[in-house]
Amino acid sequence: MAAPGPFRSPASAVRLSARLLCWSLAAAMVTAAVDALGQPRAGWWGAVWPLPWWIFAAAALTWTVLRAREKTGPPPPSGCARGDWEQAA
After folding, report:
1. Closest CA to 66 of 13, 24, 28
2. Which residues, at least 6 apart from 8, have a Cβ–Cβ distance to it below 8 Å?
């Protein structure tokens, strides 16, 4: 049985970083739209709205490194059962 937790394997770390990448991009696009269309006047907004873009950049870098590491790693054992999604990747 696999160990519990989000980092059971390198593939799960790649999957989590990909989710962070997607969600941070979505948040960045929403905050950019609010900034462009709504023109918020709150003093803290100028410091907060670029934050999702920085998280997106960090997540993209993390995903790239983890994915490259996953692809250059040793192949799984021949008898190892893999899911359809992992096989497709």
Report:
1. 13
2. 2
